[in-house]
Design goal:
The protein is of the alpha/beta class and 246 residues long. The chain has nine helices and ten strands. Strand 1, helix 1 and strand 2 form a beta-alpha-beta unit. The structure holds manganese (II) ion. The site of manganese (II) ion has 5 residues, from loops.
Length: 246
């Protein structure tokens, strides 16, 4: 299984979850929310080679943690993966908009200066703004839009810019989410849980609990579930072969 956007550190027992993922050889991108938490989060996955730890700076914390940009830059050489980063244009986050832009732009510039990174991106109600900033920094690396919820036109633009997408059971439960997934290039789709934020039937998805996403992708791609799984597996291989270690 492949879970390329999961907040491992936010589960009640991250070590146990990490061990469970490792035992099942689940490919996980463990995303973070603040630079200062990065090393602790990475430590939780020590001895679990299928868990990659990303350096994150969540847009919801951009204003409050602005001073951690220095920490971000210092740690960037330690990982090939950045996330969760991005912008959130929902009304309740509008008051921190300028700080969000400042932080995200800084991050993209740092990634560019470092030779590019794989970047897991939050773009809720901000897809166009995220795209503009990515366009400004074309050398920042490979963006992966996590739980993309923009318009079909914005999706098209993201595809033109070379973006990838990670989709999960929660996103694919809605018709809108499935319609967007159907427009994504099959060769640039990965799966994710966004656990423990994403829920199914009133409980948080567990790391790696992406089975339902493969079931839905198989319907969208009109293939067997196991074929959808092998497509996503080969996509991940392609992505990771394209990156040079920091
Ligand atoms: Mn997330």
């Amino acid at each position: 299984m492949i879970d390329f956007h999961c907040h491992l550190e936010l589960y009640k027992d991250p070590l146990a979850e990490a061990k469970r993922c490792a035992a099942k050889k689940m490919d996980v991108l463990s995303v973070g929310t603040t630079p200062s938490a990065f090393r602790g989060t990475r430590r939780m996955a020590q001895g679990c080679p299928t868990i990659r730890t990303a350096l994150g700076f969540h847009p919801h914390l951009a204003a409050q943690r602005m001073s951690e940009l220095e920490t971000f830059d210092m740690l960037l050489s330690e990982t090939a993966y950045v996330g969760e980063v991005g912008l959130d244009g929902a009304p309740e986050h509008r008051k921190t908009w300028d700080a969000q832009i400042k932080v995200f732009r800084h991050i993209l510039r740092s990634c560019e200066a470092a030779g590019g990174r794989v970047i897991s991106i939050h773009s809720r109600r901000a897809a166009s703004d995220v795209l503009s900033l990515l366009e400004e920094e074309p050398g920042s690396g490979t963006p992966i839009f996590h739980w993309f919820s923009g318009s079909p036109r914005e999706l098209e633009k993201a595809v033109e810019l070379g973006a990838w997408f990670s989709v999960g059971p929660s996103m694919l439960r809605s018709k809108r989410g499935r319609d967007l997934a159907a427009r994504m290039p099959k060769a640039r789709v990965l799966t994710e849980t966004d656990g423990p934020f994403a829920m199914v039937q009133d409980r948080a998805l567990l790391p790696g609990e992406v089975g339902d996403a493969f079931f839905k992708l198989a319907q969208i791609w009109n293939c067997e579930t196991k074929e959808a799984l092998s497509t996503v597996r080969s996509n991940l291989k392609t992505l990771e072969n394209s990156i040079s270690p920091p």
